[in-house]
Design a protein that fits this description.
The protein is mainly alpha-helical and 173 residues long. The protein has six helices and no strands. It has one domain.
């Protein structure tokens, strides 16, 4: 029985999203890896954005929504956009660099949302810098979670011999 490559990619992303429901250290999640993988592996860019965002929404409906959810989702969308850059050439170093870039973008976007909406920091440049400084101790969890989950998703694709979209095998089937 031939399985849809797109279906396998989406299934891996949904599996990663479901893992958010398991106990984990703060910010040690697969969400950025889901975006990177989706952006890199799905030829339809709308689908590549919709799948990780939809998976996030589904898991957030269980975990609970929060005031900064729009900024978190913007960070996930940014990781998918970074993933688009991997469609042409997705070697190991490029994937690691993309994971680092996605983590940095998410850090900046999500913590900007905390600064803007939480009321915990003055709404001035010093308050924004203070917000970023307070978030630094959690950043290593984001980096480690993103790097590990990115390795798991892209490694699974490699083991399953799933080609990148440039090979035209993840387009309409």
């Amino acid at each position: 029985m031939r399985h849809s490559r797109t279906g396998i990619v989406i299934g891996l992303i949904l599996l990663a999203a479901a893992s958010r429901l398991l106990p984990h250290p703060p910010n040690f999640t697969p969400i950025l890896a889901m975006g990177l993988f989706s952006g890199a592996m799905l030829a339809d860019r709308r689908l590549a954005l919709a799948v990780p965002l939809g998976a996030m929404l589904a898991s957030d409906l269980v975990l609970g929504l929060h005031a900064t959810v729009v900024f978190v989702y913007a960070g996930v969308a940014a990781s998918a956009l970074i993933g688009f850059l991997l469609q042409e050439r997705a070697g190991g170093i490029r994937i690691v660099l993309a994971a680092l870039a996605a983590s940095a973008a998410f850090f900046l976007i999500s913590n900007f949302g905390v600064w803007l909406l939480s009321g915990l920091y003055p709404r001035d440049p010093a308050g924004l810098l203070s917000c970023y400084a307070m978030a630094v101790p959690f950043f290593h969890y984001t980096l480690l979670g993103t790097l590990l989950c990115t390795a798991l998703l892209f490694g699974s694709a490699r083991l399953l011999r799933l080609p990148a979209p440039r090979d035209r095998l993840l387009t309409a089937e």
